[in-house]
């Protein structure tokens, strides 16, 4: 009885597999690619070669080079201006504490709290 059920199960599985609607992969040598009596010297056509996409321009344009030079001059000018500004004593001298003018030195009893630097002087 058990052998009969196992054989029946195998047959049901094989029948279901044979009737499935999935397309199976075929190997590369199919009927369409093989020679026939009509054309015995059949050779599959080669795929057309695609050329790589080329840029429309050969290089940078005169206008883009001029824009680049203008940006570089503006950057150099801004850096020089910032460097010149940092040479002022309010940035380079520690006596200024970040003030435009050096703060007054008061006696210890009359010192005031500074809102700019947060130090009493």
Walk me through the topology.
Layout: H1 2-18, H2 62-86, H3 89-92
Biased composition (Basic residues): 98-111
Region (Disordered): 19-111
Biased composition (Basic and acidic residues): 64-73
Task: Give descriptors for this structure.
121 residues; mainly alpha; elongated
Structural write-up:
There is one protein chain. This protein has helices spanning 2-18, 62-86, 89-92. It is mainly α. The N and C termini lie far apart (108 Å). The longest helix is centred in the middle third of the chain and has 25 residues, at 62-86.
How many helix segments? Answer: 3
List unreliable stretches of 5+ residues: none
The biggest sheet, with number of strands, parallel, antiparallel or mixed sense and barrel status, is: none
- Spatial shape: elongated
Indicate the structural class.
mainly alpha
Give the integer mean of the pLDDT values.
Answer: 79
Radius of gyration: 44 Å
Biased composition (Basic and acidic residues): 64-73
Biased composition (Basic residues): 98-111
Biased composition (Polar residues): 29-39
Region (Disordered): 19-111
How would you summarize this macromolecular structure in one to three sentences?
It contains 3 helices and no strands.
């Amino acid at each position: 009885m058990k052998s009969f059920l196992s054989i029946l199960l195998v047959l049901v599985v094989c029948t279901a597999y044979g009737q499935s609607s999935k397309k199976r992969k075929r190997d590369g040598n199919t009927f369409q690619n093989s020679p026939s009596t009509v054309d015995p010297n059949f050779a599959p056509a080669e795929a057309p070669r695609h050329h790589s996409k080329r840029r429309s321009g050969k290089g940078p344009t005169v206008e883009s080079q001029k824009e680049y030079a203008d940006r570089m001059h503006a950057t150099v000018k801004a850096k020089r201006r910032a460097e010149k500004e940092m040479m002022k004593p309010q940035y380079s001298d520690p006596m200024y504490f970040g003030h435009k003018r050096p703060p007054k030195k008061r006696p210890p009893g009359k010192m005031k709290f500074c809102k700019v630097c947060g130090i009493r002087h």
